[in-house]
Design brief:
Blueprint: H1 10-24, E1 35-37, E2 45-47, E3 53-57, H2 63-76, H3 80-95, E4 111-113, E5 119-120, H4 138-144, H5 146-160, E6 161-163, E7 168-169, E8 203-204, H6 210-227, H7 230-245, E9 260-261, H8 281-290, E10 299-300, H9 305-322, H10 325-342, E11 343-344, E12 349-350, E13 353-354, E14 381-382, H11 388-397, H12 401-413, E15 417-419, E16 426-429, H13 438-451, H14 455-471, E17 472-473, E18 476-477, E19 485-487, H15 491-503, E20 521-526, E21 529-534, H16 535-540
Parallel strand pairs: 8-9
Antiparallel strand pairs: 1-19, 2-3, 3-4, 4-5, 6-7, 10-13, 11-12, 12-14, 15-16, 17-18, 20-21
Helix pairs in contact: 2-3, 2-15, 4-5, 5-6, 6-7, 6-9, 7-10, 9-10, 9-11, 10-11, 11-12, 11-13, 13-14, 13-15, 14-15
Protein name: Pectate lyase
InterPro entries: 6-hairpin_glycosidase_sf, Pectate_lyase_2
Keywords: Lyase
Length: about 550
């Protein structure tokens, strides 16, 4: 039940951030560890195939923590926290920028040795540059070093766009490759996706994944913000437009990519070989049963978080940066269409499907492939209350009546209360909830920013209590009390800081919360054999007994 007198979470959060600063910092530089062992307080390490362990400092996996330090200075009026964020950023931008490509030594496949400062990365991924829904804290980086930041934002595009005419992209960018000045002005956007050719999509050598593409759009939008380069703005919108054009013509549901991989080698007999040069992986695995809809672009039964949360959050922010209402409208159309088809409101579940609306619940794979082994059965998943955050942010930009109705229905379905579908004013609100979600907490805060009903903050307190009860253990934020390793990019502490900022009337003065955090991906010696894994699989999801 709600309490009449509120207990602030700020002392706990201040203690947490100070603990991270005390134990995660390198003994030789301002660099920070990506995470800490909650038992030994030692930094997390990447385990190479030869058995060597390297303490990890991946600046791309620390952006939420930097946002937290800046927010702390805002809330305390103590500049010391922001100074530490500035010091770390300045050190990184001085020592870890590739002078030729402008790329930073960070991301999904590259990190820095915390103590000796060498550039590291899993050999299986060749230490290439990759950002996938990282959405770095560019405003801080630009404040610290405008030249390096602006050069990165253009170098990012130069390294990942392999064919500007066809908009062929690679999620992997190469270091040590130069690029010309005025990059965005050198090319004119050409039509790429032709909706009249649907279901056929362009064939590209690269994989036009929405996660990698959205980070490019986010980068170009910030470059426009800092420089006023209208060609960068043009390219940001052009890239996103391809995803819109590739949507299903009837359902308008979003796509995971706007092209199909070009087949460049004969398809092998072994279905477990799923490299993209063998062609579209969805067509290969599901085409005989499902026909033309079976394309990678149309799959909405794998992980839909990128298309329904990460991408809309970023695009809505980009639309604000670019002052482009049409871009925001496109994003909102995709959100509404997705939930119109994929959300089973009665059971509050997400339905696995193709983006033509075809329900794939209980479908069992008849062959091995990219999406899973033969015999894999698709199931419905519980809806995530985090979905409310993109809905609230969308409504803050555009008062679409269908969007309002959807937001009200979902708010009610999660037993949070009832909202007036015309005004979003509270008709009734729950005094208790078992929900536990950082993004739900942010959604309640931002809904409060819109209607100023403090009952929303009281409900946010309930969610915050749940987050602390379930995730704050041994002085760190962990998946559970049984887990051992804490990552400093976890969005929970920042969401809790955001609640304190809302109570202080300073929410709009702190950095925008927009990312779940970074990752590292590559080969790891696991159980005596080499596996390609993510750090959260083999580090942060490990329980104490393991």
């Amino acid at each position: 039940m709600m309490k009449a007198l509120r207990t602030s979470f700020f002392p706990l959060l201040l203690d947490y951030y100070q603990r991270i600063l005390q134990h995660a910092r390198s003994t030789r530089s301002p660099l920070l560890a990506d995470g800490l062992d909650s038992q030994s307080l030692l930094p997390v390490c990447w385990l190479y195939p030869d058995g060597s362990r390297v303490p990890m400092s991946n600046f791309a996996s620390q952006q939420n923590f930097l946002r937290g330090l800046v927010a702390l200075s805002t809330l305390t009026q103590n500049p010391a926290y922001q100074r530490q964020a500035t010091e770390l950023s300045q050190y990184f931008l001085t020592h870890y920028v590739d002078p030729i490509s402008g790329l930073l030594h960070w991301g999904g496949h590259r990190f820095i040795h915390l103590e000796d400062g060498t550039i590291e990365g899993p050999a299986s991924k060749e230490c290439v540059h990759e950002l996938k829904h990282h959405f770095p804290f560019y405003d801080l980086l630009h404040e610290v070093n405008p030249q390096a930041t602006e050069r990165f934002l253009t170098g990012f595009w130069a390294a990942h766009v392999t064919d500007w005419q066809r908009l062929d992209l690679s999620r992997h960018g190469q270091y040590q490759q130069s690029f010309p000045d005025a990059l965005f002005s050198l090319h004119i956007p050409n039509p790429v996706v032709d909706p009249s050719c649907w279901p056929n999509l362009p064939e590209t050598i690269g994989l036009t994944f929405v996660n990698a593409s959205t980070d490019l759009i986010y980068a170009a939008s910030h470059y426009f913000k800092y420089t006023g380069d209208h060609e960068a703005k043009r390219w940001a919108k052009h890239l996103y437009h391809q995803f819109v054009l590739a949507r299903h013509p009837q359902t308008r549901m979003p796509v995971y990519q706007f092209s199909s991989p070009l087949q460049r080698q004969p398809i092998p007999e072994d279905d477990r070989l799923t490299y993209s040069w063998f062609g579209d992986r969805a067509k290969r695995q599901f085409g005989p049963e499902f026909g033309e809809i079976a394309k990678e672009a149309n799959v909405l039964f794998r992980d839909s978080w990128p298309v329904v949360v990460d991408n809309p959050l970023a695009i809505l922010e980009c639309a604000k940066l670019l002052d482009d209402d049409e871009m925001a409208t496109w994003a909102i159309e995709g959100i509404i269409a997705y939930f119109d088809y994929a959300w089973d409101e009665v059971n509050n579940e997400i339905v696995p499907m193709w983006n033509n609306g075809q329900d794939m619940t209980n479908y069992r794979f008849v062959r091995d492939g990219y999406y899973g082994d033969k015999g894999t059965q698709l199931t419905r998943q519980a809806a995530d209350p985090a979905y409310l955050l993109p809905l609230v942010r969308a409504y803050a930009i555009h008062s679409d009546p269908t969007l309002r109705q959807l937001l009200c229905r979902m708010f009610h379905r999660f037993s949070l209360g009832a909202l007036d579908p015309d005004t979003l004013q509270i008709e009734s609100i729950s005094e208790h909830s078992s929900l536990c979600s950082a993004y739900l907490l942010l959604a309640l805060i931002e809904l409060y920013q819109l209607n100023q009903d403090r009952r929303l903050l009281k409900l946010a307190d309930v969610i915050a209590h749940n987050l602390i009860e379930q995730h704050y253990h041994h002085g760190f934020f962990l998946p559970s009390a049984a887990h051992r390793y804490a990552r400093i990019d976890d969005p929970i502490p920042y969401a809790l800081l955001a609640l304190e900022a809302a109570y202080a009337g300073q929410y709009n003065q702190i950095p925008l919360a927009i990312s779940k955090g970074g990752y590292l991906h590559g080969e790891w010696l696991y159980g005596g054999e080499l596996k390609t894994v993510y750090d959260y699989e083999v580090i942060y999801n490990v329980v104490s007994a393991q």
